[in-house]
Amino acid sequence: MSWDDRQRAMLAEMGYRLPARPAGGAPVALAPAQDEPEPIDVAAPPVPVLRVSPPVSPPVRPPVAAPVPVSRAPSGFDTLDLPALREAVAVCQGCGLCEQRRHAVFGSGAVAQASWLVVTDPPDEADDATGEHLGADAGRLLDRMLHAAGQRRSGEEATAFVTPLVKCRPPRGRAPQPAELDACDAVLARQVDVLQPRVVLAMGLQAARRLTGSTEPLGRLRGRVHRWRGLPVVVTFAPGYLLRSGADKAAAWDDLCLAARTGDAA
To answer: Is 34 domain-assigned?
Structure first.
């Protein structure tokens, strides 16, 4: 088959490549055009291969321990004499009671050595206001009781020292919490070391339970000798309670007599 020039141009546009026209006009089979491969430029630089590194995990750090709370209570109680101990208690921040107190209540009495250490319930509102322990009627009753037992907490010949169980008044007069009692233990222990009492008189339910380690009612703790820090302990009523319940003053006198006998025998 032969094509004229116009047909050849149309077939070329359709993608067929026609062989050259043979001499003599012999028919030539039509073959589809084949795309020739592009020549490779051996001088071209190789295409770089991108290598993706695996994600790097951040280093594992050990958990940071929570800071250990540091006690704010003054240290070195066991080296202080009585005046220095009083000053340390005035600025003590060993428990939360310091945040609302007006005055710490250290106590009063003998300045060197005491025959009796009288431990009472926590300070009341009047004590907190003045910093003095057991004033007014309760204090006067206590002084008469001590005098009747041959003791006194004032003057140059004072033989007794009276101090509250904790040195700051708990809010609204509530009972002190265990942490508050623990914070004042070091103060009370140092008072014992300095004063070297022969007997301890625990006045009031809270003082009685703390020093005896018992949860019994005060009535059951009376009439016998307990032990605390190697010292004999006698339990009796608080002076404020005796002002409201005069009928129990006779029982309190029995307690004072037991304390006197115990101190003499110590």
So the answer is: no
Q: Note whether residue 148 is domain-resident.
A: yes
Q: What is the mean pLDDT of residues 248-266?
A: 94
DSSP state of 34: -
Determine the Cα–Cα distance for residues 172 and 238; give it in Å rounded to an integer: 18
With tokens 């008469």, the residue in question is 144
- CA angle (159, 176, 180) in 5-degree steps: 85
Q: What is the domain range of residue 158? A: 77-265
With contact defined as beta carbons under 8 Å apart, do 261 and 228 qualify?
Answer: no
- CATH code assigned at 143: 3.40.470.10
Contact (CB, 8 A) for 121 and 105: no
> Amino acid identity of 75?
S
Secondary structure of the chain: what % helix, strand, coil (to 5)?
Answer: 40, 10, 50
Tell me the whole-structure pTM to 2 decimals: 0.71
**pLDDT higher than 90, residue 111:** no
pLDDT for 63 beyond 90: no
Total of domains in the chain: 1
- Report the alpha-carbon angle 136-137-138, nearest 5: 95
Asked, for residue 172, whether it belongs to a domain, the answer is yes
